[in-house]
Specification:
It comes from Spinactinospora alkalitolerans. Pfam families: ADH_N (PF08240), ADH_zinc_N (PF00107). The protein is α/β, with parallel strands linked by helices and 330 residues long. The protein contains ten helices and 16 strands. It has two domains: 4-128 and 298-328, Medium-chain alcohol dehydrogenases, catalytic domain (Quinone Oxidoreductase, Chain A, domain 1), CATH 3.90.180; 131-270, Alpha-Beta Complex (Quinone Oxidoreductase, Chain A, domain 1), CATH 3.90.180.
């Protein structure tokens, strides 16, 4: 094992030009942590935010970005239940924020956030999945307790998590109602499993209740707190809405009046989960469903080589192509 590795390590905030490949020390295994040889990783909006210096309080410089990875176990402590050579994915848990992440040839992560798997799918497919499938699945199950036969409104359907949530909801046996602001995205949503598509003009509740007069069983909010009251009005009494994301950037409200915002008898939850919310058995099922063509992963573009992180982040900022940008390492 070489003492150094190639990585993208930020010394401070900056533009895409700050994403330069350098040599840094290879992380050393310690108790409770395993080292993964990175094969592929998804590039995320949160990493663009971190690069700009607008990260969450747990972020500090210098830092190797990257909140998810797919690869092979390279080294483990003696007490580990994992073994070198196993294919694994990992995500979240402070990765790329409070400790170094996946924009590197190797990443050291807590064993508890590692999911082993066996699959013939290529790394460019598996590398796209960890964060968006964990977030989507966790939102649908932990956040909404979605059941087969129920209806779920997915507001922000053309986002990576939205497209994944549509596919996973369909796989769970639910009816998915997806939203988009652009009518030309309807075909994309239906390709991923949407049963109904609603054009989001900022006022959805009436349109959803035209389809389901009593309201939907559940709703996944990915657009923001400013539209959450409207989303809640689309949910039936006894149903649940889960706030997971804010594509529009509104994460907090200056004033919040529960009696004015939350309809009587409607449950409101939030989801900000971890890798443990995606059990290995569930991930194995999802990989098999992809292999069989029952789930279509939302992949926008595959980039090859660490130096291509620049183009991946630039493509994310333009926002022209829905889906995940994936970087594959040789």
């Amino acid at each position: 094992m070489a003492d150094t590795m190639h990585a993208i390590c930020l010394a401070g905030p900056g533009g895409p030009e700050a994403l330069t490949v350098t040599e840094v020390p290879t992380p050393q295994v310690k108790s409770g942590w395993v080292r993964i040889r990175v094969k592929a990783f998804g590039v995320n909006e949160s990493e663009v935010t971190s690069r700009k210096g607008q990260a969450s309080p747990d972020f500090s410089y210098p830092r190797i970005l990257g909140i998810e990875a797919a690869g092979v176990i390279d080294a483990t402590p003696s007490e580990s239940g994992l073994r070198p050579g196993q294919s694994v994915v990992t995500m979240m848990g402070g990765m790329g924020r409070s400790f170094d992440g996946s924009y590197a040839e190797y990443v050291l992560v807590p064993e508890a956030q590692v999911i082993p798997f066996t699959s013939d799918l290529p790394w460019d497919t598996v590398g796209a999945l960890p964060e968006m499938f964990q977030t989507a699945y966790g939102s649908l199950t932990t956040g909404l307790a979605l059941q087969p036969g129920q209806t779920v409104l997915i507001r922000g359907g053309t986002s990576t998590v939205g497209l994944s949530a549509i596919a996973l909801a369909h796989d769970l046996g639910a009816t998915a109602i997806a939203t988009t602001r652009s009518a030309d995205r309807e075909a994309l949503l239906r390709e991923h499993g949407a049963d109904h598509v609603v054009i989001d003009t900022g006022h959805l509740a009436g349109k959803v209740r035209n389809l389901y007069p009593k309201g939907v069983d559940s709703a996944l909010e990915l657009v923001g707190l400013d539209v959450l009251p409207d989303t809640l009005r689309a949910v039936r009494r006894g149903g649940t809405a889960c706030f997971t994301g804010a594509l529009g950037g509104v994460w907090a409200l200056d004033e919040f009046s529960p009696l004015a915002v939350i309809p009587t008898g409607v449950w409101l939850t939030a989801y900000a989960g971890e890798a443990t919310d995606l059990p290995a058995t569930v991930f194995a099922h999802q990989l098999e469903a992809i292999s069989q063509g029952r789930i279509r992963p939302a992949i926008a573009h595959v980039h090859r080589g660490l130096e291509q992180v620049v183009s991946a982040q630039t493509d994310i900022e333009t926002g022209h192509t829905p889906g995940k940008h994936v970087v594959v390492l040789d």
